[in-house]
TrEMBL record:
Name listed for the protein in its UniProt record: 1-acyl-sn-glycerol-3-phosphate acyltransferase
Molecular-function GO term, any one: 1-acylglycerol-3-phosphate O-acyltransferase activity
Organism: Thermus scotoductus
Any one GO biological process: phosphatidic acid biosynthetic process
SUPFAM superfamilies: Glycerol-3-phosphate (1)-acyltransferase
A Pfam cross-reference name: Acyltransferase
Length: 211
Protein backbone atom coordinates (compact mmCIF):
# COMPACT_ATOMS: atom_id res chain seq x y z
CA UNK A 1 0.00 0.00 0.00
CA UNK A 2 1.33 3.41 -0.95
CA UNK A 3 2.33 5.70 1.90
CA UNK A 4 -0.03 8.58 2.59
CA UNK A 5 1.63 11.86 1.76
CA UNK A 6 0.92 14.79 4.08
CA UNK A 7 -0.97 17.75 2.69
CA UNK A 8 0.86 21.14 2.61
CA UNK A 9 -0.79 22.37 5.83
CA UNK A 10 0.21 19.25 7.75
CA UNK A 11 3.74 19.38 6.33
CA UNK A 12 4.18 23.01 7.39
CA UNK A 13 2.72 22.32 10.85
CA UNK A 14 5.09 19.35 11.23
CA UNK A 15 8.18 21.48 10.62
CA UNK A 16 6.93 24.22 12.97
CA UNK A 17 6.15 21.65 15.69
CA UNK A 18 9.58 20.02 15.37
CA UNK A 19 11.33 23.38 15.59
CA UNK A 20 9.36 24.55 18.63
CA UNK A 21 9.70 21.24 20.47
CA UNK A 22 13.47 21.32 19.99
CA UNK A 23 13.78 25.01 20.86
CA UNK A 24 11.49 25.01 23.90
CA UNK A 25 11.87 21.53 25.35
CA UNK A 26 15.05 19.87 24.04
CA UNK A 27 12.91 17.32 22.19
CA UNK A 28 14.42 13.87 21.54
CA UNK A 29 13.11 10.91 19.55
CA UNK A 30 14.14 7.25 19.76
CA UNK A 31 13.06 4.31 17.61
CA UNK A 32 11.27 6.27 14.86
CA UNK A 33 12.54 3.64 12.43
CA UNK A 34 10.17 1.16 14.12
CA UNK A 35 7.15 2.94 12.63
CA UNK A 36 6.34 1.43 9.21
CA UNK A 37 6.73 4.00 6.45
CA UNK A 38 3.57 2.88 4.68
CA UNK A 39 0.36 1.01 5.31
CA UNK A 40 -2.01 1.20 8.28
CA UNK A 41 -0.43 1.39 11.72
CA UNK A 42 -1.68 2.27 15.20
CA UNK A 43 0.55 4.29 17.52
CA UNK A 44 -0.57 3.42 21.07
CA UNK A 45 0.89 5.70 23.75
CA UNK A 46 0.64 6.70 27.37
CA UNK A 47 -1.09 10.03 27.94
CA UNK A 48 0.29 12.79 30.15
CA UNK A 49 -0.38 16.18 28.53
CA UNK A 50 -2.07 18.06 25.70
CA UNK A 51 1.41 18.14 24.15
CA UNK A 52 1.40 14.37 23.57
CA UNK A 53 -0.22 14.24 20.08
CA UNK A 54 2.16 16.96 18.86
CA UNK A 55 5.22 15.21 20.31
CA UNK A 56 4.21 11.85 18.83
CA UNK A 57 3.28 13.21 15.40
CA UNK A 58 6.46 15.28 15.15
CA UNK A 59 8.62 12.21 15.69
CA UNK A 60 7.72 10.50 12.41
CA UNK A 61 7.59 11.82 8.86
CA UNK A 62 4.32 10.22 7.83
CA UNK A 63 1.07 11.95 8.85
CA UNK A 64 -0.61 10.71 12.03
CA UNK A 65 -4.34 11.04 12.67
CA UNK A 66 -5.58 11.57 16.25
CA UNK A 67 -8.96 11.88 17.92
CA UNK A 68 -9.79 15.39 19.18
CA UNK A 69 -12.65 16.79 21.25
CA UNK A 70 -15.58 17.64 19.00
CA UNK A 71 -16.19 20.98 20.71
CA UNK A 72 -12.87 22.42 19.50
CA UNK A 73 -13.96 21.80 15.91
CA UNK A 74 -16.62 24.47 16.45
CA UNK A 75 -14.01 27.21 16.86
CA UNK A 76 -13.53 29.06 13.53
CA UNK A 77 -9.77 28.66 13.06
CA UNK A 78 -9.62 25.10 14.41
CA UNK A 79 -12.63 24.09 12.32
CA UNK A 80 -10.47 24.84 9.28
CA UNK A 81 -7.14 23.61 10.65
CA UNK A 82 -7.92 20.34 12.45
CA UNK A 83 -9.28 18.39 9.45
CA UNK A 84 -6.11 19.35 7.56
CA UNK A 85 -4.11 17.86 10.46
CA UNK A 86 -6.16 14.66 10.02
CA UNK A 87 -7.82 15.09 13.44
CA UNK A 88 -11.03 13.10 14.01
CA UNK A 89 -13.76 14.70 16.18
CA UNK A 90 -15.06 12.70 19.12
CA UNK A 91 -17.76 13.68 21.61
CA UNK A 92 -16.24 13.82 25.07
CA UNK A 93 -17.49 11.50 27.79
CA UNK A 94 -19.35 9.08 25.56
CA UNK A 95 -18.71 6.19 23.24
CA UNK A 96 -18.71 7.92 19.87
CA UNK A 97 -19.41 5.32 17.19
CA UNK A 98 -18.84 7.81 14.37
CA UNK A 99 -15.31 8.56 15.66
CA UNK A 100 -14.51 4.84 15.80
CA UNK A 101 -15.78 4.41 12.25
CA UNK A 102 -13.66 7.38 11.13
CA UNK A 103 -10.60 5.80 12.77
CA UNK A 104 -11.31 2.52 10.98
CA UNK A 105 -11.67 4.36 7.66
CA UNK A 106 -8.37 6.17 8.22
CA UNK A 107 -6.60 2.86 8.78
CA UNK A 108 -8.31 1.28 5.78
CA UNK A 109 -6.85 4.14 3.71
CA UNK A 110 -3.38 3.24 4.97
CA UNK A 111 -3.04 6.05 7.51
CA UNK A 112 -1.15 6.07 10.79
CA UNK A 113 -3.58 6.48 13.69
CA UNK A 114 -2.50 7.67 17.14
CA UNK A 115 -4.47 6.67 20.21
CA UNK A 116 -4.18 6.90 24.01
CA UNK A 117 -5.61 3.62 25.36
CA UNK A 118 -5.77 4.94 28.94
CA UNK A 119 -8.67 7.10 27.76
CA UNK A 120 -7.58 10.21 29.66
CA UNK A 121 -4.43 11.97 30.82
CA UNK A 122 -2.70 10.53 33.86
CA UNK A 123 -2.59 13.08 36.67
CA UNK A 124 0.12 11.16 38.54
CA UNK A 125 2.35 10.38 35.55
CA UNK A 126 1.91 6.65 36.24
CA UNK A 127 0.56 4.44 33.47
CA UNK A 128 -3.15 3.71 33.90
CA UNK A 129 -4.89 0.49 32.78
CA UNK A 130 -5.55 0.39 29.04
CA UNK A 131 -9.07 0.17 27.66
CA UNK A 132 -9.83 -2.45 25.01
CA UNK A 133 -10.73 -0.03 22.20
CA UNK A 134 -7.23 -0.02 20.72
CA UNK A 135 -7.20 -3.82 20.52
CA UNK A 136 -10.65 -3.86 18.91
CA UNK A 137 -9.56 -1.41 16.21
CA UNK A 138 -6.33 -3.33 15.58
CA UNK A 139 -8.10 -6.68 15.26
CA UNK A 140 -10.86 -5.27 13.05
CA UNK A 141 -8.32 -3.82 10.60
CA UNK A 142 -5.33 -6.13 11.02
CA UNK A 143 -3.17 -3.07 11.69
CA UNK A 144 0.17 -3.46 13.49
CA UNK A 145 0.41 -1.61 16.79
CA UNK A 146 3.53 0.40 17.63
CA UNK A 147 3.86 0.98 21.40
CA UNK A 148 4.93 4.55 22.17
CA UNK A 149 6.30 6.03 25.39
CA UNK A 150 5.94 9.77 25.96
CA UNK A 151 8.23 11.10 28.67
CA UNK A 152 8.43 14.57 30.17
CA UNK A 153 5.33 16.22 28.71
CA UNK A 154 3.76 16.08 32.18
CA UNK A 155 6.55 18.37 33.40
CA UNK A 156 6.45 20.61 30.32
CA UNK A 157 2.69 21.15 30.38
CA UNK A 158 1.00 19.52 33.40
CA UNK A 159 -2.71 18.77 33.53
CA UNK A 160 -4.59 21.85 34.74
CA UNK A 161 -1.83 24.35 33.98
CA UNK A 162 -2.72 27.12 31.52
CA UNK A 163 0.80 27.67 30.18
CA UNK A 164 3.70 25.36 29.43
CA UNK A 165 7.04 25.38 31.24
CA UNK A 166 10.22 26.00 29.29
CA UNK A 167 13.24 23.69 29.08
CA UNK A 168 11.49 20.63 30.50
CA UNK A 169 12.95 17.81 28.36
CA UNK A 170 10.51 15.82 26.24
CA UNK A 171 11.37 12.39 24.86
CA UNK A 172 9.32 10.04 22.67
CA UNK A 173 10.26 6.36 22.25
CA UNK A 174 8.71 4.18 19.52
CA UNK A 175 8.88 0.45 20.18
CA UNK A 176 8.87 -2.55 17.86
CA UNK A 177 5.54 -3.16 16.09
CA UNK A 178 3.13 -5.76 17.44
CA UNK A 179 1.75 -7.68 14.44
CA UNK A 180 -2.00 -8.20 14.66
CA UNK A 181 -3.99 -10.60 12.43
CA UNK A 182 -7.27 -9.31 11.04
CA UNK A 183 -10.26 -11.00 12.70
CA UNK A 184 -13.86 -11.14 11.54
CA UNK A 185 -15.05 -12.28 14.95
CA UNK A 186 -13.34 -11.11 18.12
CA UNK A 187 -13.73 -12.79 21.49
CA UNK A 188 -13.53 -10.98 24.80
CA UNK A 189 -10.43 -12.99 25.65
CA UNK A 190 -8.68 -11.91 22.44
CA UNK A 191 -9.46 -8.28 23.26
CA UNK A 192 -8.12 -8.62 26.78
CA UNK A 193 -4.98 -10.50 25.72
CA UNK A 194 -4.01 -7.96 23.05
CA UNK A 195 -4.85 -5.02 25.31
CA UNK A 196 -2.61 -6.35 28.07
CA UNK A 197 0.18 -7.05 25.55
CA UNK A 198 0.07 -3.49 24.20
CA UNK A 199 0.00 -2.09 27.74
CA UNK A 200 3.00 -4.22 28.76
CA UNK A 201 5.01 -3.10 25.72
CA UNK A 202 4.34 0.58 26.45
CA UNK A 203 5.26 0.02 30.09
CA UNK A 204 8.60 -1.53 29.08
CA UNK A 205 9.52 1.64 27.17
CA UNK A 206 8.81 3.94 30.12
CA UNK A 207 11.33 4.83 32.85
CA UNK A 208 10.49 3.41 36.31
CA UNK A 209 8.85 6.60 37.61
CA UNK A 210 6.20 6.40 34.88
CA UNK A 211 5.36 2.68 35.16
Amino acid sequence: MEAAKPNPVYRAAWYVARFLLHALFGYRVEGAENVPQEGPVILAANHLSILDPIAIGAGVRRPVSFLARADVFRLPLLAWLLPRLYAIPVERGQSDLSAIKSALRALERGMAFGIFPEGTRSRTGKLQPFKTGVAAIALRTGSPVVPVAVIGTDKAWPVGRKLFRLRRPIRVVYGKPILVPRAERISRQELENLTREIEAKVRELLPPEYR
